[in-house]
Amino acid sequence: MSSFFTGLRRFRRGAWEMVATLIIAIGVFMLMQPFVLWAYTYSFITTLIGTVLFIVVSHFPE
Amino acid sequence: MIEKPIERVAKATPTGMARQIKGLSDKAVAWLFVGPTIFLLLAINIFPLIWTINLSFTNFRANRPNREVEYVGLRNYERILTDSDTWLSMQATAHFLFWTLLLQVLIGFALAWLINRKFRGNDVWTTIIVLPMMLSPAVVGNFWTFLYQPQIGLFNYVVSFFTGVDPSSFDMLGSVDLAPWSIIIVDTWMWTPFVMLICLAGLRSIPDYIYEAAEIDRASKWRQFWTITVPMVLPFLMLAVLFRGIENFKMFDLVVQLTGGGPGSVTEMASINLKREAFEKWRTGYASAFAIILFVTVFGLASIYVKALNKVKER
Fold first, then answer.
1. Does a cis peptide bond (omega within 30 degrees of 0) precede residue B180?
2. ipTM of this complex
């Protein structure tokens, strides 16, 4: 767990890719969940942020 | 002395052309070969994508090309993301995705586990199981429409045989409750072999000596399954799930053939909703915004897919 936070602080690819993946997964869940409309409304921006973040952090060093 | 093929080609090249090529650097020749592909990629993929992004901010209608196009900003996105009907189509997609993935993984893995055992006719069974995957979705959709017929359909008779329910008492494609399941059944029938093949590759990649070591340590079959088989097949299974997930998110042909989005709109998935907006209501700007939303979602899922693929490669 501590290596994950160290990776975040040092801008390492693995840790940041994990964060981006999580944001994308949350965005996709928000898009398809049947519970609340507001989550559906904000799903696209969440997925977009996750995807852009993924593209950016995939250029970080290992 | 035997002439090399490259020398034969060089000799056969007309003098004029040879003179022209001679003046080019290696890099230029490489660009000459790669250029047409890059041009096609830009023309077929990149340009339409940029054009769609541009259209998604307008009120353009493809059936009225001469009408003045107005830029509406983010209004199309706002409408889609607050529209309860579009939300319902996303839920229909989610229902389809969840159940197809669950069934395909469970059945696919079970089949792979059985096929992986050495028995007579193993190859024949593998071929038979893989057959549905090789058929065109249009053909599959068409013949399942006949199988689901309440009067003459084989499916209703099989259900009737096992449950005792009158075969003509239920209509798989016409019932609001059963129609989503009818599509799930067909997709599972068609694509389980794909998951099975990937799982089979995973199972065959496990070296025998690991099981032999477990046998020596007196590990039970149950324990071997949970501590060796499952963890080692998991990356392959994950790949299959992600691949099928992305494919099923875009599911169109099978649903059009089977239910056309009906009855009502219970099986109207995102892709069908998109097609209706674009080519029935002709709201091109709105449909472009919807397409971009789906594209970003699939792109996001594809990013996770690539990451999972790299992890599998590292193993």
1. no
2. 0.91
* Spatial distance between the Cα atoms of A48 and A43, rounded to a whole number of angstroms: 9
**Contact A32/B82, CB-based, under 8 Å?**
no
| Residue B26 shares a structural domain with residue B92 | no
Residues of B in contact with A49 (CB under 8 A): none
Instruction: With respect to residue B159, please indicate whether it lies within any of the assigned structural domains.
Output: yes
Structure tokens at A24: 């994308």
Which residue range is the domain that position A37 belongs to? Answer: 2-57
Contact A27 B297 (CB under 8 A): yes
Query: In Å, how far is B285's CA from the nearest CA of chain A?
Result: 17
Q: How far is CA B313 from CA A55, B23, B230, in A?
A: 20, 43, 18
Tokens of B113: 């586990």
Ordered alpha helix ranges (H), A1-62: 2-9, 13-32, 37-41, 43-57
Question: In 3-state terms, chain B is what percent helix, strand and coil (to 5)?
Answer: 75, 0, 25
**pLDDT < 50 regions, chain A:** none
Domain that holds residue B263: 76-314
* Contact assignment for B303 to A54 by CB distance below 8 Å: yes
pLDDT at B295: 92
With an 8 Å Cβ cutoff, are A44 and B307 in contact? no
Residues in chain B, pLDDT under 50: none
